[in-house]
Each structure stands twice: as structure tokens, then as C-alpha cells.
Amino acid sequence: MIIVHKYGGSSVATTEKILDIAKYLGKVKSENNDVVVVVSAMGKTTDNLIKLAYEITEDPDKREMDRLMSTGEQQTIALLSIALQSLGYDAISLTGRQAGIMTEGHHTKNRIKSIDGEKIKGYLKEGKIVIVAGFQGVDKLGDVATLGRGGSDTSAVALAAVLNAKCEIYTDVDGIYSIDPRVYPDAKKISHISYDEMMELAFLGAGVMESRAVELGKKYGVEIYVGKSLGEKNGTIITSKEKMMEEKVITGISVNENILMVNIENIPTYAKNVYAIFEQAVNLGINIDMISQNDVLSEHGSFAFACPKTEKTSLEKLSEILKEEFKDISVIINPYVVKVSLVGIGLISNTVVAARIFKVFAENNISFHQVAASEISIAIIVDEVMGKEAARLLAKEFNI
Amino acid sequence: MIIVHKYGGSSVATTEKILDIAKYLGKVKSENNDVVVVVSAMGKTTDNLIKLAYEITEDPDKREMDRLMSTGEQQTIALLSIALQSLGYDAISLTGRQAGIMTEGHHTKNRIKSIDGEKIKGYLKEGKIVIVAGFQGVDKLGDVATLGRGGSDTSAVALAAVLNAKCEIYTDVDGIYSIDPRVYPDAKKISHISYDEMMELAFLGAGVMESRAVELGKKYGVEIYVGKSLGEKNGTIITSKEKMMEEKVITGISVNENILMVNIENIPTYAKNVYAIFEQAVNLGINIDMISQNDVLSEHGSFAFACPKTEKTSLEKLSEILKEEFKDISVIINPYVVKVSLVGIGLISNTVVAARIFKVFAENNISFHQVAASEISIAIIVDEVMGKEAARLLAKEFNI
Question: What is the CATH number of the domain that holds B167?
Fold first, then answer.
């Protein structure tokens, strides 16, 4: 059996922790498993590198950012390989390029295009523990390319898919919770969650895993274990709906603070204008999250969307471009909001649940700016100051 | 004209310094030059990475050490490229592999086998400032390979050779001094020095540049400028003897404290015994520096050599081995010595100069333990306490 392990930044933050992981991997290997390990950069390494770049300029070149950010993982793979070899295990480190991870897309947010797993399989056959740098691959120009947020999870799940392996994600939380325990202390850990629910939770900013990694798991049927301790298996298993024993109405609630709202007002609300906004946003590589259009009956209406706070510089560019195209519009960026989201298979065509949600808002006098619903989730933009309170009230209402 | 600049670790230690360099490079570029820049890792980055590896084990795998140590330069090239682009200059960063630097040899001390300069020339033609990671290349397995001590200087000189370019090394000292100003405050900066003299000085521990980079410069006729300030050209030019306008008798004096003397006494001084000593020293990987044999006329004489203090552990092993082979010998290790060296083309077959040197020792009652002379240098082992005084007196005598 091939097992792909993934260790995040806090799990490899010190050489002591790296040695502990090496010991555990040696144990797993000695139980007749073929072991592939994906690691992130140590602790706050990536954040510190990003900080250096922003000391220089507010708008660093993205190809160079990929180069810069990809160094942290190269350090961890080398150190973990050194640790394993010092314990007497045969190990080899591979960069994304060496592991055959080809990417496409834009620098700092590339997608995995393909993985040639043959090289890794060859090393596994030689009895080696194979250590792969997470978060990175190589693009068609031969440049290192990073996979954006949660990229190491994506690397691990993609490798597990290609190698037909199990995937175990080790992180600094001991599993997936229905709601952040810091927001709601009575939060419960979930033992099994479906890919779809997890994707919604991840997309909504629950933080433990990025949705794209889960999506990949769903696509290729890779069962993903998420947990903390080395050895004890008391984390959360992300799997297909069919394999789950029972379902709750609401599985999880998240509060995402990395969000801002953009209102574009006094714009002729024709489809072609909405398209023009989107076209420019795509050119600038802006990740748009929730979209709503108001006052569609008047000739000049307003159009709103939400996007991550980190897009602020690109948004300002967008604003300039749009103001040139549409003379009369005003673009208002409101960063003082958060997004409260509820996820659960129980939301599928269940208006009763939606009604319960809005009742909580009404009874507690919490106003909201925007609402968006997918098949299994509802997201609501509220003022920053009300975010946690709203989440607590909802958690209590749905007993999660 | 193509100019290769090289900036060492202390020159790129902060983002502020990187921005200053970017500004200067932009100026050089705007004066109609094609600019290639080689950079080291920021400040103490490499040292800190090495420390992490040694926290794990005393004997880290060398392939993985190369991977680990090579990340620092990748960070600097990305940051410098970001800085140049933020100032409006077109720039691109290249790893050693991307710059076409092929290596051979052993991990952590590779040599440059060849450089394919076409890729760099292509980018220069597009008007780009090309930034290359120093200290690294790629071996035939496709693994990153580092060049050992002074590796970034070697990268810069080798690139200048391939590109038929000038080479300018910027460091934290403002040029090559005839003698360490901390030893002799009146020390003068050398405006021109020959490759051979510089190699001797480097070998003798003068520190500013490794001898291999200078050797490469000599081999390919690359004129090397070494200096500190950005813009002011008041450093030192390392060039061929033929290009030097005038020669001084003595160009430089160094005091090397990393030295100890080993006396092997009461040993039959036959060639085969001397060979036996050398054979064991080679087996133990001891770097022997100066060698002298005394009392060759008596049957039991003595044999002395000098070597770096860092070889102490290996020397103790050597002592044990020799005592088994030659029962009556005594091995005396004296660490309380320093080596004072004088370098200068004027020393070539010039016994008058040698006489002046020994006159200084005689008149000031400084005794010495060992003397060794090469074509353009004389090295003298004296007691530690007399080292600096001897250097000062010699500097005064030769007015350097």
C-alpha cells in the first residue's frame, strides 16, 4: 500500500518536530508501506518571505514571488530527508519539478496540469521514502510555479490520486470541527464528512483544508484523513456521501474574515456591462466570491461582489479601469465585513432550514449585506463586529 | 559591453540594501551596458540553514545539504528581480540550472563543468537585467549542486568568462589591502594586483576572495574589480601582471592565526619515513601547509609542518598512528603560532628583498620557527604574541 502523508507548516516548524515526523514515518514504512511525504515550509517561513517582498514593493512580480515562496518547501524536504537518513532510513527529496508535477495557469495561483508518477514509483521500488516539496510544480517554461493557498494539500491529494494511494493530512488541529472552537467552545469534532460538505466549509474559510484539494479528492475518489497526532487515528475522514453513516442538517459553520465587499453603483445594468466588469477582473486575476446585482429594473443600478481582502491592490486597478469605461459610476470597497457560512447536506431544497437561519438574524437584530446560497451552503455577509456573535447564535440553533 | 556584478551576503542582507543595489544596477544599465548580476544569500541565511541541519545530525547527507543551502540564493534573486521591476526595469531571475551552469564533482564542493551562456544572452538581447543565483549549478542527475566556499565569486567570474564580460565584485570591504588595517592602521589599499599575487593572498587567508575564483579569472583573462561602494570606483582591480603599470616589491602582508605547527622529533629522516607521514596525513584528509625537515645529516632528525588549527582532531589521530609505527618519536603540536606572509611579484628571484625581511626580524629580536617560500611569497611562522608586531614592522619596512 502506498500512503501519502502531508505535514503542514506548524507540524515541521522546528528540527525537533521534523525528527519526530521522521521517526513516525520510519515506523509507517517498517509496517510494509510505501511512503511518500509532502511537506510545507517550516512555521512562518513563507509569510516571512512574502513580508520581505512587500518591504520592497506593494506589487511584487508574480513569477519572482513563486521563486521566492517556493524556497521554504525546498528547505523542509532537505531537512526531513537528512533526518530520515540520520535515523538509517533510505530517503530522497524531490522538488515539484523533480517529482514530475506540471502546472498551468498564472503565477502564484497555478493549477496542477499533470503528474508523471513514474519517477516516484521508481524510488519507492528502491525502498526509498520519497519526500516531495508541496505547494509547487514547474510550468511549461521550466519556471517554478506555486499552487496558491492550500497548495501543499493539493499536491498531496494529487499525488495520492496518481499513485493510487491513501492520503493522510497532518496539521495543527486534530480534525474538522463543525465550527471554530475559538468562536463557539462547545464545537464538536466531525468523524466523517462528505467531500461536498468539506468543500463548502473549506471554500467558506474554515481553514483546515482548501476546497480545491478536497475537490481533487472527490474527483479521483481519494479518501483523505485529516488529523493531528502521529499515530492515533482520531481525526476526520473526508469521503464520499455514500460511505457516510448519518447526516446532520447543518454540518458546519464558518466565519471568514478575509473578505471585503465591492459595490459598483450607478452603472447601466446590462449583461454586457456585467461581462465587462468580469472580463477586467479576470485579466487582473481577481478571485470573485459572491455576486449580486440589485435594482435590475432601473436603468442605472448597482452591482456587488465579495472577494478576499488580499485582492485589494488589484481591486484598486479594476476601479480605475472601470471608471475610465463608465464615467458616472462609483466604486465603493468595504473591508469591514465578514462572511458567516453554514454548510450541510440538509440544506438541499430545505427552505425550513433557511427560514430558521433568517429567524436567528431577525430575532437578534443582525443586519446583513449580501446572501448567497449554493446547493448545500448559505453564506451571509455581515458587519465585522457582528460576525462571531452571529456564528455563535447559529451554532446554538443547530446544536453543532 | 556586458558587465557581471556580484553582491555578497552582507551587501544584500536587508531589503533596503537590495533596493539600493537595484537602483545602482538600473543606473549602470541606463548607461548602455548589458547587466548580469550574481547574488549570494542574504546575510547569515546560509549559516542559519546549515545550523538547522546540524541540529538534526552531525553528518547530514550532502545531496540534501546542497538542496538546503541553495535556497538562500533563490530568495535573493527573486527579491532583487522584484526590486528592479518595481523601479521600472525589466529583469529576470535564473537559478543556476536555468542559467545553464553545469557542475561536476561531489555535493557541497562541486566544480563548474560548463556554462551555456545562450539563454542569458537571449534575455540580455531583450533588454533584461539578468539575475543569476550564485554558488549553485545543476549536476548531471538534475540535482542542484553547490560550489563550496567562495562559490558565488566563482559563479560571477565564470559567467564573465563565458559572456566575455567585465566582472565587478561588490563586498563589505572597499578593496584589497596590502595588510589587514586592524593589524596595521596605515595599511594602504591596492589599486591593482596581479592574479598570482591575489591567489597567494587569498590562499594565505586574506579573506576577501577565494583563490579559485581568481584562478578562473587568470585562466580566462577576466579582469576583476573588487570594491564596496556603489558607483565610486575606488576598489582594487585584479588583472594580469602584464597590464599592471608599476609593481611594488611587496604587495601584501597577511597574518594567519588559523595555523599550528607540528614537530615530529627523533625520527629516522629517510625519504620513506617522510612518505609514511604524508601517506597517513592524506588518509586522514589533513591539509598540510608548510613543510620543513631539519638535521638531515644526523641519523635521527626532526620533521616539521604547519596546518590549520581546525585539523587538530585529525592530527591527534595521526600522532597515535605514527607512534605505533615509530616507537621512539615524539610528536609536539604547538598551537601558539601564527603565520606571517609576504606576497609580491618583487620576490621573484630577489634575494635582496628576502634579506630585508630577515633584517627586520633580526633587528627586532623576533625569532621564527619555520620559513617557506614560493615564487612570489614568503611565509614565516612566529610565536602568536609576536605576529602582529612582525607584520607591522614589515609593513613599515616595505611602505605598504
Answer: 3.40.1160.10
Dist. CA A372–CA A200, nearest whole Å: 12
For residue B93, what are the CA distances in angstroms to A251, B36, B228, B321, B391? 47, 10, 23, 52, 44
**CB-based contact (8 Å) between B102 and chain A?**
no
CB of A340 closer than 8 Å to CB of A390: yes
B2-7 vs B34-39, strand pairing mode:
parallel
Cβ atoms < 10 Å from Cβ of A214: 29
CA B219 vs CA A303, B122, B151: distances in Å? 68, 26, 17
B56: chain A residues, CB-CB within 8 Å: 15, 18-19, 79, 82-83, 86
Asked whether B113 and B77 are in contact (CB, 8 A), the reply is no
Which residues make beta-bridge pairs with A237? Answer: A192, A225
**A56–B81 CB contact, under 8 Å:** no
In a domain, B392, yes or no: no
CA distance B305 to B155: 34
Helices (H), A139-186: 151-163
The partner residue sitting opposite A75, judged by closest CB among B49, B93, B142, is B49
For the record, the C-alpha cell of A340 comes out as 458567516
Residues 6+ apart with CB under 8 A from A98: A119, B142, B143
Number of domains in chain A: 1
Of B18, B55, B65, the CB nearest to A15: B55
Structural domain including A63 reads: 2-172
Which of A157-166, A337-346, A371-380, B323-332 shows the highest mean pLDDT? A157-166
**Rounded to a whole number, what is the distance in Å from the CA of A351 to chain B's nearest CA?**
51
Per the prediction, chain B carries an average pLDDT of: 88
Judge whether B236 lies within some domain.
Answer: no
- Extract the C-alpha cell encoding A324: 475610465
The partner residues of A194 in beta bridges, in order of sequence, read: A239
* Reported ipTM exceeds the 0.90 cut: no
Higher-pLDDT residue of B322 and B51 is: B51
The lowest-confidence range among A49-53, A57-61, B274-278 is: B274-278
The four Cα atoms A208, A213, A218, A222 give a dihedral, to 10 degrees, of -90
Position A122 in a domain: yes
Distance of CA A90 to the CA centre of its chain: 32
Residue B258 belongs to a domain: no
H or E element, residue A30: helix A15-30
Nearest to A76 by CA among A24, A135, A123: A135
Nearest to A64 among B56, B60, B81 (CB): B81
Determine the Cα–Cα distance for residues A75 and A71; give it in Å rounded to an integer.
6
**A72 Cα to chain B: minimum distance (Å):** 8
- Nearest CA to B256 out of B399, B348, B382 is that of B382
Integer angstrom CA distances of residue B152 from B50, B112, B137, B310: 17, 11, 11, 24
CB pairs under 8 A between A and B: 110
Set of chain B residues whose Cβ sits within 8 Å of the Cβ of A63: 92
Confidence at A267, pLDDT banded by 50, 70, 90: confident
Under DSSP, the state recorded for A250 is -
Q: Do A74 and B75 touch (CB under 8 A)?
A: no
- Residue among B52, B70, B93 minimizing CB distance to A67: B93
- DSSP secondary structure letters along B31-78: TT-EEEEEE--STTHHHHHHHHHHHH-SS--HHHHHHHHTHHHHHHHH
- Lowest mean pLDDT: which of A146-155, B159-168, B301-310? B301-310
Does residue B75 sit at the A interface (CB-CB below 8 Å)?
A: yes
Start-end of H helices in A136-293? 151-163, 195-203, 211-220, 271-283
Does the pLDDT at position A91 exceed 90? yes
